[in-house]
Amino acid sequence: MNKKLKSWLYVLIIISLYAIPSTFEIPLNRMSILTFRLDHLLHLIIFIPLPVFFLKTYNFGTTYIIISITLIFFALNLEFLHIVYSKRSFSLNDMVFNIIGVALGIMIDLLIRKRQLKLRK
Fold first, then answer.
1. What DSSP designation does 22 have?
2. What is the pLDDT of residues 11-24, one digit of tens each?
3. Burial (0-12, 13-18, 19+ Cβ within 10 Å), 56
4. What does the alpha-carbon distance between residue 101 and residue 75 come to, in Å, rounded to a whole number?
C-alpha cells in the first residue's frame, strides 16, 4: 500500500475514534497506570505513529517543518470535535496528551533519520 495512503487512512481512523461516541463498558478515565489515567495514555499512544507515517513520506527540509507544525495543530484542534458531539466532552488534558504524542512521534522520526544517516556513512 502507498505510504501517503497509509498516512491518510491513519488520520481517518483517528478522526473516526474522535467522532464516534464511545461504547466502552470499561471506564478508562478511572483507570491509572503509574499515576496517569489510562485514557490520557491512549491519546498519547494513538498520536505517536501519526508523524512517523507522515514524515516518512516526505523529504527532510521545509516540508518536514510544515508537516510537523500541521500535525501539532491537528492534534490540538481535534479535541474540539468533542464539543460538536454531545455524547463526548472536551478535555484539556486529552489535548495535551495528543500534542505530546505528536511531539514524541516527531522525535522518534528524527532519531530514525539520524540513525539511517549514520548507517549510510
1. P
2. 888 887 776 666 65
3. middle
4. 9
Q: How far apart are CA 67 and CA 13, in angstroms?
A: 19
Is residue 52 a contact partner of residue 108, using CB atoms and an 8 Å limit? yes
The alpha carbon torsion through 71, 73, 78, 84 (nearest 10 deg) reads -150
Task: Please report, rounded to a whole number, the percentage of residues in the chain having pLDDT higher than 70.
Answer: 77
Which three cell numbers, joined as nine digits, stand for 56? 516518512
C-alpha cell at 32: 491509572
Query: Residues in the chain, how many?
Result: 121
- State the CB neighbour count (10 A cutoff) for residue 3: 12
Cell of 42: 491512549
Residue 52: what are its φ and ψ, rounded to 5°? -60, -45
